[in-house]
Each structure stands twice: as structure tokens, then as C-alpha cells.
């Protein structure tokens, strides 16, 4: 075989490989959920990389952080720069690796961890793993996060190549899969997911007694790891329980967190007992789903109170007046109120919210 | 056709075959958006276990079986005193709680339908079909269910796809709960 033929065969092989790679990339991009028309919270973890850097406070946790805390309000009232790395039913090992991943981009001065996820000692659902991990950029941190999180039915390879997980979505493809093939929409405001509608609390089910109120060993291990990682990086760790009424937060659970915080010199605040009296939460007006999450007015009340708490218990600077940050945050504020206005318009028009963007 | 062109076509076909093989349809739920967080459905929802094969609770004439379709049971139970819906953080479907005086009935959603997730007994005005009630003694648990509860704070009994959880304090039953096993 002469040299020319060898070159042609190699070129043909490279061409075939290129076609294969492009086809696989195309299919993966097409079939991977876009999280625009439903399950929009699937956008959150990936969005962080757009606002990474320069955040003095990092919130980590489940919907109790991304629905309840407004970084815009913290900026407006206290000049605190903050970001939320939340995802639906984020488990504590997810949160730990969110922190590790964040440290690849910035070192916040304060990390706020919402402790509700201490109740889960085992992975609950593959779907929530996907929402927490698929959006995370690849690194050794993500590799360890996936290994720590996978349910028995999952494979590491399906995280490396999501096409292996989503390949049969072809029969469920929707218009958003084509419309947002290249681009996506920004859902959050530095991680905060806004809802302005109201569904008041009129009844909370009785909390059934549990056979065992102890948190799982694995949860304590990850809380220790989180504490150690914060210490190593000079970060103050603050523990919080957001003031949402469901799921139940048992006194027996709270006592364990109080003791842990006390033993380790950490700040911990359970906002449930003070939600109405000190924070000013009105459960007939400040929640969009009968006490499970706060709406915008509730999140702003909580953030106003929590900003003061942070000022009193940490050494966070006030960045108001710094020109570059004022410019950066004014753009965020504009978008924040645009979304609030769009939701209000949709509520008035349709009587209900059908999406976060109000369109 | 030149040999190199044949090779090129063969390689391209191989590439396309690989793609087709990878994307060949599989069954199952491949969209996290339709996952309600429940791990798996019982094999056949329409064939709920017979009463003798699983723990059930009875309220009047209504038998409440774990993992049974909720609609006919809730309808038979009538208007609840209270009702609460708890959505998952992101996904469709609701965990629902129906309060009927001294019992709470909870349901979960799977593939668009509701199923019985549990029953909680709250006071001694109700009892299990076998006769256990809140306030009964640990000896009663042993007599009724054959499980020694002396000195224990909880007893978990499994039969069929139901878990009967009995909590005790100082030798007295303080809580009785039926939990669906998925």
C-alpha cells in the first residue's frame, strides 16, 4: 500500500470519527432536558458559573435556600454580595461538593448551610442527583460528587455521557428542545428562584412521631467535612433552618443541630420560632404553596432579617458605593424587578403563574 | 468505486450504526421531569394485596390498603376534615394528606395517579383491625401481633407491602402508623 493510500485511509478514519463525535454531540444536546417549560430548577447549578466570583456569602442547600433567600435584597440593604448554590432536594453530600466546586472559583467569607437535608441519610432519587450534578462543570470534584451520590441503578458513565441516560427521550422531545438547542434562559437571580404568587397556609398536617430522630452517620460525616473545609479556607460556616412549615422540622432534630453548633463554635439559627414575631413572615401572604416555600415578599422579609443577622454575627463588609459592584448589581436588580413585573402581569392576565418568566 | 471511497463509506456507516445503537429506544422513564421521587411502582397496582397478605387499616366499611389506588378509598371515606398538598421541590405530583378525625391518610403520586402511602392513628378512638390502640400495653402488642415489645421504643412489622410501625414509651403504645413499602 503506497503512502498516498495510507493517508487517504487515515483521513477517512478521522472523518468518520469526526462525524461520529458530531452526531453524538448533536444527539446529546438535543436529548438532554432543557428545563425551560418544566422542572426549571434544573438550570440552577449550571447558572452559578455565570455569577461565580466576588460573592462574600454562599448559600448551599435545597429549595429552602433557593426559594427563600434573595441576594438582591441582601445587596440592596446591606451591600452583601451573595450567591445561592441550591438544587431541588439537595442532599448534604451534594451540598458539600457544591462547596468544594465553588472553591474552584471563589472563596466566600461566609457559607450558609440549610440543615433540612440532614434528615436524608440515603440518596432519595436519581432525578434529584441529575438536577444537582448534571449542571456541575467537570472536574475531580464532580467525579467524587457523582460517586458519592449515585443510586444503585445509576452508572458513572451516564454522567460523563448524559446521552446514555437520556437517549430514549426522543419520543418526549418538545419544541423547547429545538428552541433552546444552543441557548438557554436565565432562571435565577444569583441562585434565587422567584415566585410572587400567594397560597396561604390554612392548615398544616400533624407531624407523625418518628421511631428514630437521629440523623444518619453519613450526614454528620459530611457536616464535619463541610466544617473542616470551611475552617481550612478561613470561611465562617453558619447553619440555618429556613422558616418553611413543611416538611416538618422536629424539635428532636433541632436539638441535635443546636448541640453540634455549640460543640463546634458555629452560629445556628432556627428561624421557625421567630418567623412571625421577629422576621415578620405572614403565612397568609408570604408563601406560594401553603408554607412549603416563601414567595418574593416572604423571601425579602427573611433576607432583610438575615442580612442584619449576618452583620451582627460575621465580619462581612458593606460593598455599597463600590462603582464596579454597583454597576454589576444594578443590572441584576433590573432583571429582578423585570421578572417580578412579568409574573405580576401574568397573574393579573391569567389568574395564575404558569412559569417563572411570566410569559 | 475506488477502494478508499469504499473504506470511507464503511467507516461513516459504522459511525452512524454506533449512533443508532446508542440511541435505540429503551423503555422506562428517561425524563427526570416525570419522576416523582418514588423509587418503583409495585408490580401491579390493580392487584392490591389481599387483606390477609398485608396489614390494612379499616375505617368503618372502608379498607385502606397500602399502595392501593387512592381515589376509590378517599371517595369512600368522604369529605376530610382537612386536606394538604405537598409538592416535591421540583417535580410533578403531590404528596397529599387527608385528615379524618383521629386518622390521617397520606397518598403519593405515580404516573399521574394517587396511591395510598400511609395511615397514622392519632388517639385511642380508633384501633387496628387486630385490636391494637394507642394507650395499649407492650404485652398487648405481643398478644396481638406475636412480637415482643417489652422494653422497646418501636416495633416494625412487615406484611405484604405494608409496614406497621408501633411506637412505645414506658411500655405504652404512643403511635400506630401504616407505611407503604414501595
Please write the CATH class name of chain A.
Alpha Beta
CATH superfamily annotation of chain A: SGNH hydrolase
| Mean pLDDT figure of chain A | 95
The biggest beta sheet of chain B reads: 7 strands, antiparallel
What is the H/E string of chain A? Answer: HHEHHEHEHHHHHHEHEHHH
Q: Any idea what the CATH architecture of chain A is?
A: 3-Layer(aba) Sandwich
Q: How many strand segments of chain B?
A: 9
Corresponding CATH architecture of chain B:
3-Layer(aba) Sandwich
According to CATH, the homologous superfamily of chain B is CAP
Widest beta sheet: strand line-up of chain A: 2-1-3-4-5
**Average pLDDT over all residues of chain B:** 82
Low-confidence stretches of chain B: 25-30, 33-49
Structural class by helix and strand composition of chain B: alpha+beta
CATH class annotation of chain B: Alpha Beta
Described by the principal axes of the CA atoms, the overall outline of chain B is elongated
What's the multimeric state? heterodimer
Cα-atom Rg of chain A, whole angstroms? Answer: 22 Å
Number of domains of chain B: 1
Amino acid at each position: 500500500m503506497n503512502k498516498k493510500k495510507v493517508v487517504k485511509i487515515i483521513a477517512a478514519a478521522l472523518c468518520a470519527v469526526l462525524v461520529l463525535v458530531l452526531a453524538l454531540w448533536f444527539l446529546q444536546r438535543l436529548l438532554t432536558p432543557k428545563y425551560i417549560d418544566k422542572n426549571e430548577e434544573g438550570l440552577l447549578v449550571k447558572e452559578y458559573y455565570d455569577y461565580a466570583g466576588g460573592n462574600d456569602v454562599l448559600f448551599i442547600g435545597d429549595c429552602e435556600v433557593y426559594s427563600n433567600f434573595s441576594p438582591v435584597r441582601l445587596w440592596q440593604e446591606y451591600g452583601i454580595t451573595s450567591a445561592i448554590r441550591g438544587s431541588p432536594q439537595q442532599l448534604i453530600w451534594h451540598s458539600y461538593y457544591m462547596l468544594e466546586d465553588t472553591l474552584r472559583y471563589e472563596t466566600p467569607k461566609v457559607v450558609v448551610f440549610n440543615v433540612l437535608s440532614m434528615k436524608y441519610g440515603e440518596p432519595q432519587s436519581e432525578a434529584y442527583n441529575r438536577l444537582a450534578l448534571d449542571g456541575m462543570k467537570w472536574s475531580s470534584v464532580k467525579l467524587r460528587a457523582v460517586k458519592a451520590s449515585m443510586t444503585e441503578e445509576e452508572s458513572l458513565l451516564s454522567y460523563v455521557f448524559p446521552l446514555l441516560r437520556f437517549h430514549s427521550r426522543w419520543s418526549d422531545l418538545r419544541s423547547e428542545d429545538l428552541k433552546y438547542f444552543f441557548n438557554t434562559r436565565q432562571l435565577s437571580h444569583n441562585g434565587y428562584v422567584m415566585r410572587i404568587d400567594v397560597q396561604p397556609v390554612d392548615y398544616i398536617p400533624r407531624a407523625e412521631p418518628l421511631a428514630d430522630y437521629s440523623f444518619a452517620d453519613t450526614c454528620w460525616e459530611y457536616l464535619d467535612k463541610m466544617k473542616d473545609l470551611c475552617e481550612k479556607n478561613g470561611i465562617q460556616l453558619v447553619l440555618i433552618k429556613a422558616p418553611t412549615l413543611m416538611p416538618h422540622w422536629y424539635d428532636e432534630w433541632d436539638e441535635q443541630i443546636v448541640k453540634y453548633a455549640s460543640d463546634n463554635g458555629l452560629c445556628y439559627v432556627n428561624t421557625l420560632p421567630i418567623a412571625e414575631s421577629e422576621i415578620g413572615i405572614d403565612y397568609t401572604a408570604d408563601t406560594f404553596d401553603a408554607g412549603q416555600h416563601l414567595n418574593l415578599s416572604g423571601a425579602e422579609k427573611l433576607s432583610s432579617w438575615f442580612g442584619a443577622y449576618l452583620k451582627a454575627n460575621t465580619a462581612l463588609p458593606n460593598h455599597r458605593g463600590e462603582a464596579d459592584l454597583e454597576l454589576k448589581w444594578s443590572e441584576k436588580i433590573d432583571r429582578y424587578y423585570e421578572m417580578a413585573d412579568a409574573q405580576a402581569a401574568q397573574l393579573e392576565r391569567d389568574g395564575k403563574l404558569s412559569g417563572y418568566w411570566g410569559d | 468505486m475506488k477502494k478508499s471511497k469504499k473504506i470511507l463509506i464503511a467507516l461513516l456507516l459504522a459511525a452512524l450504526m454506533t449512533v443508532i445503537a446508542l440511541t435505540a429506544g429503551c423503555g422506562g422513564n428517561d425524563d427526570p421531569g416525570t419522576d416523582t421521587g418514588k423509587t418503583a411502582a409495585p408490580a401491579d397496582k390493580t392487584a392490591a394485596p389481599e387483606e390477609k397478605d398485608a396489614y390494612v387499616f379499616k375505617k368503618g366499611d372502608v379498607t385502606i390498603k397500602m399502595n392501593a389506588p387512592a381515589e376509590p378509598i378517599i371517595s369512600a371515606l368522604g369529605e376530610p376534615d382537612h386536606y394538604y398538598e405537598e409538592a416535591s421541590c421540583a417535580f410533578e405530583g403531590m404528596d397529599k394528606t387527608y385528615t379524618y378525625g383521629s386518622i390521617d391518610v397520606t397518598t403519593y403520586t405515580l404516573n399521574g395517579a394517587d396511591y395510598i402511602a400511609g395511615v397514622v392513628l392519632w388517639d385511642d378512638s380508633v384501633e387496628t383491625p387486630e385490636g391494637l390502640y394507642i394507650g395499649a400495653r407492650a404485652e398487648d402488642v405481643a398478644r396481638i401481633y406475636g412480637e415482643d415489645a417489652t422494653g422497646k421504643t418501636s416495633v416494625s412489622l412487615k406484611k405484604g407491602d405494608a409496614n406497621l410501625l408501633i411506637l412505645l414509651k414506658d411500655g405504652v403504645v404512643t403511635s400506630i402508623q401504616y407505611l407503604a413499602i414501595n
